[in-house]
Here is the input.
Amino acid sequence: MKTYIAQRLAIALLTLVGMSIVIFALLRLAPGDIVDVLFSAAGYVNPGEKKAILQELGLDKPYWQQYMDWVRQILVGDLGKSYRYDLPAWQIIKPLVPVTVELAILSTIVAVVLGVPTGVVSAVRQDSALDYVLRVVSLAGLSMPSFWLGMVIILSLVSWLGWIPPLTYVRPTENLWLHTVQFMLPALAVGYRSSALIMRITRSAMLEVLREDYIRTARAKGQGTGAVVWRHALKNAVLPVVTVVGIEFAFLIGGLVVTETVFNLPGVARFLVEAILWRDYPVVQNLVMFIAIVVILSNLVVDLLYGVLDPRVRYA
Amino acid sequence: MAVRPIGAEIELTTPAAGIRRDSLGATLVRFVRKKPLGAAGGVLMVIMLLTGVLADVLQTHDPIATDAAATLARPGDEHRLGTDHLGRDIYSRIVHGARVSLIVGIGSTLLGSVLGGIIGLLSGYAGGKTDLVAQRLLDILQGLPLLVLALVMSASLGPSIQNVIIAISIPIVPRAARVIRASVLSIREMQYVEAARALGLRHLRIAFRHVLPNTMGPFIVLCTAQLGAAILVEAALSFLGLGVPEPYPSWGRMLSVSAAEYAQKAPHLVLFPGLAISLAVFGSNLFGDALRDTLDPRLRGA
Here is the structure.
């Protein structure tokens, strides 16, 4: 078990190093740099001035040196300085993290609450009309852009209820109820999409488990359908479901990029888009790195959860 | 008479006589009967394909022409689905948007799947250390959410249709490689591959001529599944202003900032382009699901 964790950590670390190189290289492909963006409004930049700014930002150094500087900074926990705001990047990112984390957790809860029960019902009633309806509804969730769904939710609230959701961020300390409503709307839009994946995997896992001998035994013993399905079958179908929830949690962040923009929430994902448009290298690099770490960590957690959920799983 | 290689005779005289081959029509009818939802998805995809191809015929207005006299017009006789804030005809823009979505969707899916497929084929066939290294490299690409990677890529490459296609295809590569590798791993162990090796065929020839054709089932399934995802990513990128540039009408950009601003006054601005995206992706998802069940039952529900 201990060697397994060590092994996994080593692989995760290697992957992170690889990712840092990919991220760094991708951003350097970009035509134009922060100075061009900053001065594009002015129209003309004095070449001497431009050089001075590049020097100050360390952009005149060779790429490998810039990369090494970045890695060194990350290792000591310094996330560099935002070119655009002239502030330490961490100072900007820090207040954004809770917003995105809260949104991701809420979305995951929505996804599980919607996805698991419908998946179970759909499997138990395989090929019935209900099964078809549930499958079509869930597939529709996979097909709609979550940002569009978000816009439609806002629009229908406005036109049917005449209620305009808050357009600026409401702190939980200001108004907890409004805050919750504000977060539940995007969480519904994003969670519906993820619930579709969870429903599909739950359904197929349940279909497999329901054909097992021990389920027949439980039924033959005279146990009620409810107990057989929810206690015996679901317990054994839960492993692939957990995998998908883990993967989804990480990938939610991708979906949140657009949803945070639609709902005007000051989260990491929305800020990432802004930073990309501004070519604010330190912020983009560090945000993408942060997302990569979250993805890798959640994969690791899922792997370790296997052993907890299913004692038959041995770590070799 | 020319010298024939041994065995050519047998090949010629036994054209799978024992196996009943259905005509294309019969296969289609059976598919529709067994998978009505999949068939409905297929119809949606055909409609989208025709719309994209015939966009110039189907349009009622120039999709790019602005009309200051008819901004934010409601759907009606003159403009079937209304106009946007610049007076552009939404119906004509959606029709042309189908073309853009198709080009980007199919282009990036094919590019990513073929690239990933080749990597998966070689890495799965070679096995050992090559495979291990390739897998770790793919892990790196797959570790980032699809949209985030595409976002950074397309921002770096600059806005153009080709660059959007490249940006969306890169995240597809590791997914395609995984699927093809998995099926190569089992095919590699089959006896006919061993036979080919015993005959002294070169590895590359075995991989491409004898193993590759047998991965086509999963490959086609993968492509249909990725097509929907690619269309969605294109929509999101264009929505954020990092996708297909003006003047091409793109469904995603039709939903962007300007639409959100005028949405209250003119809900049709938001409604119709989103419906177009959803129907297109819904169609390819339905069709892809049915195809997967038919071609590759092992992947069911995955």
User: Anything to note?
Assistant: The two ends of chain B are 54 Å apart (CA to CA). Confidence is low (pLDDT under 50) at residues 6-18 of chain B.
